[in-house]
Amino acid sequence: MFLLKAELVLLIAGTLLLLSVLASKLGGRLGIPGLLLFLAIGMLAGSDGPGGIWFDNYPLAQFVGTAALVFILYSGGLFTRWAAVRPILGPGLSLATLGVLLTTLLTGAFARYALELSWLEALLLGAIVSSTDASAVFSVLRQRAIRLKKHLKPLLEFESGSNDPMAIFLTIGLTLLLTQPQMSGWQILPLFIQQMLLGLLLGYGLGWGVVLLLRRLRLGFDGLYAVLSIALMLLVFAIPAMLGGSGFLAAYVAGIVVGNQDFPRKTALLSFHEGMSWLMEIGLFLILGLLVFPSQLPAVAAPALLLSAFLMLVARPIAVFLSLPTTRFGWGEKAFIAWVGLRGAIPIVLATFPLLAGVGAAQKIFNVSFFVVLVSLLVQGTTLSWAARVCRVEEGQAPQAAVRLEA
Questions:
Q1: Residue 94, Cα to own-chain centre: how many angstroms?
Q2: Residue in 24, 130, 136, 133 with CA at minimum distance from that of residue 383
Q3: pLDDT tens digits for 198-210?
Q4: How far apart are CA 35 and CA 27, in angstroms?
Q5: How far apart are the first and last CA of the chain?
Q6: Could you tell me the pLDDT band of residue 242, with boundaries at 50, 70 and 90?
Q7: CA pair distance 43, 45, nearest whole angstrom
Q8: For 50-76, b where at least 16 C-beta lie within 10 A, e where not — what string?
Q9: What pLDDT score does 143 carry?
Q10: What is the model's pLDDT at position 404?
Q11: pTM (2 decimals)?
Q12: Which residues on adjacent β-strands are paired with residue 396?
């Protein structure tokens, strides 16, 4: 019986992965983000869909989400060229910190009245949906052979990889305030400084440690280098997290350090991590699609649609323009940056934190967050080519290239 169940699970997993790969190719041709199709496949396979797979294991989903984000952020760092990032480091950090904070405050203020939440619950929802996921952006742009002007591409890549720690911290901090009323908001500020500094410093130091090991360690089998790379990546995340730092920030920073150095078998390891990033992205969205119950979404559809519109048309643009007040980017470029603020897997993963902590409005927050992600991918994700033309940020047509997901 156990063997039969294992075979059935593997059959389902293989089928869903195959469908997702095919959907990604189809989505690129149609201009639809593959992430949206991955979610749709998961929802169709779930309890409310024809697949009928019942899945409501939030702790497992959060664990898988955390592991997947580590792979995705580390891989994003590996493919980030420091020479391209250096000129936009200031604007990128501003978007990743001030931009996320402003988005949280503005979206939270709107959610306070649109969804009839308490102030802390509304701000928590704002924090959950505050970070961007540019992986869908570049898959569509590459498939359509669109090249962006100047430093837009590295800026968007850097923002999407570096703004997650800020959103994660705000989500955890606001969840603590909701579950521990005796705490003060000022008590969280030192924790934020500690997490960011430790994550940055330990990520940089551990990244160099990874480089030294990859350069000096000689293994008897080529396949073991991929295993070694995974082990080092997990340590880069876990050590800072155990010491009170941001493991996610450390993973991204370490990835940048490692990706910008030379070491044996670098090309093979980069290809391996690229494939693992795809696998984690697909698997994460499939699980999150299974996790949601579509029958619960109509109850929050109207206010969630209003919140989505406010986030896309008001909160994100204001956050971008205030975060980039004196930079070299023009109005059209800033408008495009604002429109590229797609929401992806991270808001859905973060929405499991208040669920597991027992926050009163957690289920409502989860369903609204999922709805926001769907609307963002459907509306913004399918209009990127149009937005690039309207904002006049296209540099020209690039030759067709293989599509690669980035964090």
A1: 18
A2: 136
A3: 999 999 999 999 9
A4: 9
A5: 40
A6: very high
A7: 5
A8: ebeeebeebeebbebbbebbbbbbbbb
A9: 59
A10: 44
A11: 0.86
A12: 147
**Residue from 307, 367, 350 nearest 48 by CA:** 367
Q: Quick check: 241 pLDDT over 80? A: yes
Residue-wise DSSP of 70-126 = HHHHHHHHHT--HHHHGGGHHHHHHIIIIIHHHHHHHHHHHHHHHTT--HHHHHHHH
- Distance between CA 290 and CA 251 in Å, rounded? 27
DSSP state of 398: P
Closest CA to 335 of 389, 260, 406: 389
Across 4-32, b (16+ Cβ under 10 Å) vs e yields eeeeeeeeeeeebbebbeebbeebbeeeb
| pLDDT at 1 (0 to 100) | 41
Residue the block writes with tokens 């070299």: 328
Residues 130/35, Cβ–Cβ less than 8 Å: no
- Residues 353-403 pLDDT 10s: 999 988 889 999 999 999 999 899 889 888 888 888 899 888 754 444 444
Q: In which residue are the tokens 């580390």 written?
A: 74
Helices 362-379 and 34-45: angle between axes, nearest 10 degrees: 130
